[in-house]
Amino acid sequence: MDLMRSLPLGLYLEQPVTWLHRLDSRVKLGWLLAFLLMPVLASGVARLGLVALLVLLTVGAGIPWRVWRQQLVWLLLVGFFATLLTALSPDGYGLKYQPRSPADLNWSSLNSSNAQDPASGSAPVGQAIASESLVLPQPTQYRYWLVQQGWLKVSRRSLGLGVRVGTLVFILIYSTTLFLLTTAPEEIAAGLESLMAPLGRLGLPVAEVTLTLTLSLRFIPLVLEEVQNLVRSIRTRAINWRRLGWRGTVKIWLILAERLLENLLMRAEQMATAMQVRGFTTPDRHSLPLSVPRLRARDGVAIGVLLLVAGARLWWGWQP
């Protein structure tokens, strides 16, 4: 089990360098923010379009299949099961749906009500209607219940909710992962520092925020590495979980959690010591050697496409 390859969360793909790598980090932050905001109050069709757009970006960028294969498949499975479970769940409407065709009318009550009116010389209304054809043409093919077989019931509302939940999970996770996959931590920090530079005049510690973000992004692979080492140590010992029982299993997992916390704290202390040795004291006395981001022609094209996508989303795709 290699978590560094099978679960590339927060990892940066150095090779091959695609056109997504060459875009400015601030432009990619704008795209990420758009993907996080556009699903809000969006219809199911619009969210499916965003999912397709993310997949097309991944394929069009030429990212190797081995990099995003397992993660994309797992996210698609999670989104599918979220859609399925939500569609099979009650839709939340506390209404009792009843058929309204004339065949379901209570003719006995109609006959009894008509029989009480002796002044009327015509035939009872119930008998007059019953003698006629009761098959009424429907104006449309609309059906609220799409599937209704015993306990298996899927309504239009539950299916719409399922599509929205599944696509929302996929968009939020995969857009963030794609951004981290094609953007180096230093570029992210430099882009955020450039965007937050005006806030520095208001007293916001921009340098500290940038440094904290850089360290957190660098710390994610270390966490995955520690988890991977603990999993491998458990597998090499060939523990018989059935003989241990649930108490022994819980005890071992608590020991592993404690060991993981100790290892992560040790790694954090090592990073702090390395920073102190290299002269990191305070942001006022030490500046981060980050490259200054610059906009190029391809960044202008990406901004134009982003404006078109955002305009299309504002004009179309609202939740009905």
Automatic annotation (TrEMBL):
Its main location: membrane. InterPro entries: ABC/ECF_trnsptr_transmembrane. CDD domains: EcfT. This is CbiQ family ECF transporter T component. It is a multi-pass membrane protein. It is found in: Membrane. The chain crosses the membrane at residues 29-59, 71-90, 161-182, 300-318. Keywords: Membrane, Transmembrane, Transmembrane helix. Pfam families: CbiQ. The keyword Transcription does not apply. It comes from the Bacteria.
